[in-house]
Every structure is written in structure tokens, then in C-alpha cells.
Amino acid sequence: MRIANLDGRLVLKYPDGVIDVEKASDGRFAADPQAVFARWDEFVVWADRLRAAQARSLVEPFDPSRLKAPVPRPSQVFAIGLNYADHVGESRLPPPPEPAVFTKFPTCLAGPGDEVKLPTATVDWEAELVVVIGRRAVAVQAVRAWDHVAGVTVGQDLSERTRQLVGTPPQFSIGKSFPGFAPIGPEIVTPDELADREDLEIGCSVNGEVVQRARTSQLIFSVAVLIERLSAILPLTPGDIVFTGTPSGVGHARSPQRYLAPGDVLETWISGVGRLRNTFAEGPPHVSRTISKP
Asked: Which intervals hold domain Fumarylacetoacetase-like C-terminal (predicted)?
């Protein structure tokens, strides 16, 4: 199953169009894409019955430019740093003994085709697999972790390196939470749609030049382990999302360093899941341009 957010309405996504969930369910499920996660098990049963009934007459054509963030208002947004060995190496840091967890504040979420305003000249890209929680998870063992996943989507952990790295300790959460700094989409894909949910190609390009390419099987801490470790500390609730980490190839680690500029086109993909295409424009002056020490 694939679901998406079409102009603020929950839809089931098919190769030739979409089905509006509220209309097809006669109001049983709300149009709000965020609301479905609180009733995920019930929704999956209904959607499977709809598919079995081959309700093709309900499919309508749609404009992909109308797609928005498929999880518009998560209660919690987790992000994992240094979760690919090659990215650890290019960062010149030791491998973390435990997942390096921070947050991206929910107000930074963006859609799969949104334009992002650049607050400074040091904004970097980070292609990531994003996991969407479908069932409440508390002290879940890794072997059962995928049972709590609604699906996965494509994400970008955009990072303003000046703000992120000023001072000690670094300010990961605030440096990665400017408006538009978490594009996700274009849809949520349930794990059963994937031939191998543990081994997906992930990558991104800037203006057509591939700058990142890896496989999610190279994660240091797998999706299952991340859910186990996080849920051992606090509840994961339906509709929460987890950015699972980025592979090597970020601009900050290059020589010379390279960052996103106005007019750039960033395309991010995960095999079997989808592709984002985000553009960039110059934003208003921001405090990060003139950071000073206290």
C-alpha cells in the first residue's frame, strides 16, 4: 500500500492515480493525513478490502505537484547522526557506541516538491530513509520492531553547518530545523511493498550530479535496532517519524567544501519508495550569517 497527502487530503496512491480515502470510506476515515496513524490497524484492513474489491472506478488522475508532506504533523521527529560507516569516516569521528539521536523540530517539515529558502551559504544535503511509526512502541525488541512501522518514505536532513557546528557541544537540532529543512515524501510505502526492506538503494543529486549513493543495508544501527533503542527510553507514538541517518558524500566533508546555492535542484531517491525534487532560493538574512561568541 502507498498513501500520500494530496493538498491536505489522505489518498491511496496507485500507478495511474489516487483514491480519496474520506470519500471512498464514506467518512469512516478523515481526510486529515495525520489522523490515519491513530487508527492504522483498522485502516490497513479497510484498504486491503478495498484493493481486493478492485475499486478501480474510484481512481482519479492527479497532479504530482500537489503532493505535500505525507506526515504533516508528527508529535515526535527523531534523527540519527553518524549511522553509516563511510559517513563516520568522512566526518573524521569515531563510530558511535549507541545511536547518536537528535531531533528535527516538526515546523521544519516540507513537501516533496517544495522550494526551500537558504538562510546562509552553508546549507548541506543529507539523503535519508525515513521511518513512520504506525503502532505505539514501548520497550520493543528488535525482532518485533518492524511490526510497529506503518511505512517508509524518502527524506532530506538539510543542515545549516555554521549554526550546527558553532561552539561545543554542536547544535545539531537547531542547525537542522530551519523552515523547509526536512522535505519528506512523495508517499509512504508499507514494508510489504518492498522486495527487501533492509536493503534499498539511497542517493541524491545536485543539478544532475550524483553526490550520494549507498544502500540502507549499510546502516550501522538498523531500523529495527533504532526502534528498539528509542522505545527502551520513551514511547514511540503513531505518526512519529525517524530519520535514520545519511551515507557519505555530504558537501561539508568535501575538499573543497560544497553547499547548496540559490537555483540548485536537489533530487533524492530510495529504490522502491520514491523520489523528492526540491529547489532552493535565497532567503532573508538570518542570525546564522553573523554568529558571534557570547
From this structure: 77-280
Contact 98, 118 (CB under 8 A): no
| C-alpha grid cell, residue 250 | 555530504
Judge whether 81 lies within some domain.
yes
Domain count, the chain: 2
Quick one: pLDDT band at residue 92, thresholds 50, 70, 90? Answer: confident
Q: How many CB atoms lie within 10 A of CB 203?
A: 19
- For 100, which DSSP code? E
pTM over 0.90, yes/no: yes
Of 208, 228, 227, 224, give the one whose Cα is nearest residue 216.
224
Residues 6+ apart with CB under 8 A from 226: 78, 80, 99, 131, 145, 242, 244
158 and 273 fall within a common domain = yes
**Res. 292: pLDDT tops 60:** no
Contacts of 244 (CB under 8 A, 6+ apart): 80, 83, 128, 129, 130, 131, 216, 219, 223, 226
User: Residue 181: how many CB atoms within 10 A of its CB?
Assistant: 23
Assigned domain for 72 exists: no
Locate 207 and state its grid cell: 543539478
